[in-house]
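Re: the 121-residue chain
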Amino acid sequence: MDPLEASRLVTDEYSAKILVATFKRPRSAIDLSREYGIPIAACYRRIHALEKAGLVRCTERALTQKGKRISLYMSQLKNAYIFFENGKLRVRFQLATGVTRDFGGDWKAVEVEEPAQTNYL
């Protein structure tokens, strides 16, 4: 994942709500959807993207009153840093496990091509 993708992951409205809501205790996708107004399909998509990045994980499988199994998710993100310094975008995630992840490899810059100049007359 490059730094731009990593920064989008934590600054996306739904992802940010999920990370904040699951910081202190595990929550189900259904609870997150209901309480934070996240459409259920979008909630699952964000949870899977956050899981893939290691920012949330399923901590338990609970049994509902109707006998259905649901996954409970917990944030693994302790700190997130997004830097723009000297023309470079850098992203660092510190996880609850103590692991630090620098997205974009060894703090590589995001390469942005200069737009072609257009003369408007």
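Strands lie at 27-28, 56-63, 69-75, 77-85, 88-95, 100-103.
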